[in-house]
Structures are given as C-alpha cells and as structure tokens.
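Section 5.1 Outputs to date
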Amino acid sequence: MIAIHPSSSYSILPSVQESLHGLGSMIKKVAVLFYENVCYPIHLGITVGIYDFSSSVLLELGLERMGLGSVLANEIEAALYEESLKDVFDAVVVAPILEEFIFRFLLQNVFHFVARNVLPDINVDLFSYQIKLAALTSIVATSLLFGLAHLGNGLGIIQVILCTVGGITLGILKQHYGMLACTAAHMTNNAIAETLMILTQK
C-alpha cells in the first residue's frame, strides 16, 4: 500500500491554478483578436452598408431634383422581372466578393503602392478625417474605375456617380478596417437594394 503525504496533493494545486490562469488569458486574447479582426469589421461593414444605401437614395433624389433623370424610377422599372434565387445570391454574395477582391484588394493596393512611391508623405484633412495623400489617391482612383465598371447596367452617368461615391466609402473601410468590413458593407447595400426590388414585384 502506497501512502500519499497530504502536502503532496496540495503542491499540485498551484501549478494547476497557474495552468488554468494561463489558459484563461490565452482564450481571452484569442476572443479579443477574433472580435477586433472579424466581428467588429463585419458589424461596422453592415452599419456602413445601411448608411451607404440610404445616402445613395438621397443622392439619387437630389440628382433627380436637379433634372438629371429619375434613377429610382429606372431602377424599379428595371427590377420588374422575376428574379430567381440565383440572381439574388449573385447580387448579394457573389458580386460583392468578386468586386471587392478586384477593386479594393487588387487595384486599390496596386494604386496605393504606386502612389506611395510617387506622392509626398503628407496627411490630408478630409472632413476632419486624417488620411495619407497616397491612400486617398488610391481610393479615389479605384472608386472612379468602380463607378465606370457600372456604366453598362442601363442607368447611365448617374449610376457612375453613385457607385463612385459608394466606392470611396468602401475604399476608406478597406484602408482602415480591412476586406471583411468593405465586403460586409457591399453585401448589406446590395441586400437592401435586392429586397426593395423584390418587394416592388409583389
């Protein structure tokens, strides 16, 4: 029969407590990193997507009042066909992922690399928002291309203006919060638009 000294069992407790404390700290750090790098960008993107859609509607109404055509009416008229589930999926999931990869991940990074080596390293005050000149240049250049890419959808120059403005918002999101944020914003914007289009069909 083996006798265990009572003090030996107590000597294990501090090491177990230290291990549990270390594990708790590690889990907390992982949770914070996950929130900062995944949850927060997605939440921010959804919020900005809602704002972006709302502001684009207001901009459309303003352009309409200036006599530049009824974009809202054209969009609703263009939407009066039966959209399949695949059409909705393409608009809400596939298109935002592809467009953000092409415009924000590839083009914006390339433009930023070139601008950083050509332009002076100065900050620009944009509505009390500080941003590097190279970053701003890459965002604007990418957004112009993003707007022009939407020229062929039948809504003309007004759609180019709207997509360029929206592209600047997405570009700033990408610059400061990453691809998850701008992709979530783009998906949210398209989801609201698709929902309204489907509702007009009823």
